Amino acid sequence: MTVAGVGEFGLIDRVTARLTYGKSCLLGPGDDAAVVAAPDRRVVASTDVLVEGRHFRRDWSTARDVGHRAAAANLADIAAMGATPTALLVALCMPADLDTAWAEELADGLGAEAALVGASVVGGDMSASPTLTIAVTALGDLADRPPVVRSGARPGDVVALAGRTGWAAAGYTVLSRGFRTPRLLVEAFRRPEVPYPAGPEAAGLGATAMIDVSDGLLADLGHVAKASRVAVDLRRDAFEVPRQMRDAAQALGVDPYSWILTGGDDHALAATFPPAVALPERWRPIGRVTEGAGVTVDGVPYAGPVGWDHFRRAE
Amino acid sequence: MTVAGVGEFGLIDRVTARLTYGKSCLLGPGDDAAVVAAPDRRVVASTDVLVEGRHFRRDWSTARDVGHRAAAANLADIAAMGATPTALLVALCMPADLDTAWAEELADGLGAEAALVGASVVGGDMSASPTLTIAVTALGDLADRPPVVRSGARPGDVVALAGRTGWAAAGYTVLSRGFRTPRLLVEAFRRPEVPYPAGPEAAGLGATAMIDVSDGLLADLGHVAKASRVAVDLRRDAFEVPRQMRDAAQALGVDPYSWILTGGDDHALAATFPPAVALPERWRPIGRVTEGAGVTVDGVPYAGPVGWDHFRRAE
């Protein structure tokens, strides 16, 4: 059955019937708007859009995978402020001949990823469109802490990373060369593993700046350096190249550090901490904040492109 | 200059430089997420998406018009809960060859419409896409009142309308027949005039149910009737056909009541009130809630389609 066949309201009924609601959802789908708890008297809000052919391919990822990734991209932005996600709203634009099962499984993926952090899909909109497009807005709560912004890094701070980088980029390269294995890398591209609790944890530890690594580690730390008017220097030896990644890099003729340092889409969290902070195991030191500008690796500018531009990236 | 020419970050810089921020915006664009005031400890949230060729046409509306309408569609949903809008987030998908001026003027329209209610554009995302698409999320505050939902209408309640209906549909018909006048109707399609303050006002007066009229009056009151398990009967003589609309209807061979009763996109607010409530002038009584199901006009079911389905509507 196509989405045009069941119609807008029929599809909304089918999708909302599959959703479950977290405790922050005070009023879910079915009215003009949802109502979400904001105990902190502030709400953190972020929007990310995924466009078919640019951010995902239906022959590379299942609908459920795309749902997980669309949710993860947004939930990670909330975590990167030091907040806990509470809700997602989803605008879904679909070709009229799309199978309803695709939309339903997308909703399953969105809901399952949100449930990892106690959040839920509380509302949205649907429209026909020639281009399959998923725009997600995530909301979150700061629990009475100030948001951790990009502009607070200070010379002397430690740069630390929670989560992994390079895995999704490696999976993307594998898929784009026509392979389906190594499975571990391909799965990392399909469904990022985001260290959500590390966000509020970093805020509690006194992180001075934090960012979701979505454009690539060097590019995103570049945003932090620019906003904070500081320089960041990373230590290459802080990054171990996992065996599967090393083997794939060798087979594909790629420098694995290009994945680790410039690949996006794993949604790791990078943060800066005052040097006195005792970092828990989840936060791995990878470099230092210094006076100056820009990002270097072992004191040297990185040779090569450092991240994606979503208007220039090849289709 | 095209959006691909200035790139994602260049365009974000250009657009955010044009925005101004309301008092609810505690942290605006430029970080992983925005922070918005939610003094009520709850946030009202709604998402609406506009797709080129389906919800707007670039040869019918300027970018600024589209911005006004995209914002209005969302802000009206917030008002229809009895809330005051605080913020918008915007996901904008654009063909790479789109002129940056279009995106900048869109932002001007979004910002200007939001400013009518003291709200502002606090964040968003941009991507290239073959299909020009604007997904907007609006947030709002309930000021310690319960949300006015669709399910609270009771037999005996008065049905009342704030704002106008049929104007946007008339303008749409005029444009789709290849005309550019009457200007008043065409302008109503391009930029709806939404009675935003009527939403919180109705909540304060004790409205039992409320809805934003976006699908058409009969269709939307049908949603209220269904959710409330009641019937709604409208009085045709409660609707005066304005002269410009009557003249256009005659020239185009259309029943003007089909515009008034089934046309969407004016974003009027329809609400039900206990009969004892003294309605201010802005809220015009148009019918009654009774026992039963469905919506009738002068006791008789309406002959003809009552609203849009966004998957079936002709391109």
From TrEMBL, chains A, B:
Positions with a binding annotation for Mg(2+) 3: D32, D77, D212
GO MF annotation list: ATP binding; magnesium ion binding; thiamine-phosphate kinase activity
Residues binding Mg(2+) 5, per UniProt: D215
Residues at which ATP binds: G124, D125, R150, S214
GO biological process, alphabetically ordered: thiamine biosynthetic process; thiamine diphosphate biosynthetic process
Annotated transmembrane regions: none
Positions of the PurM-like N-terminal domain: 30-140
Record-linked InterPro entries: PurM-like_C_sf, PurM-like_N, PurM-like_N_sf, ThiL-like
UniProt keyword ATP-binding present: yes
Enzyme class, first EC level, given as a word: transferase
Keywords: ATP-binding, Kinase, Magnesium, Metal-binding, Nucleotide-binding, Thiamine biosynthesis, Transferase
Binding site for Mg(2+) 2: D48, D77
Note: Reaction mechanism of ThiL seems to utilize a direct, inline transfer of the gamma-phosphate of ATP to TMP rather than a phosphorylated enzyme intermediate.
PANTHER family per UniProt: THIAMINE-MONOPHOSPHATE KINASE
Family listed: Belongs to the thiamine-monophosphate kinase family.
Described function: Catalyzes the ATP-dependent phosphorylation of thiamine-monophosphate (TMP) to form thiamine-pyrophosphate (TPP), the active form of vitamin B1.
Protein name: Thiamine-monophosphate kinase
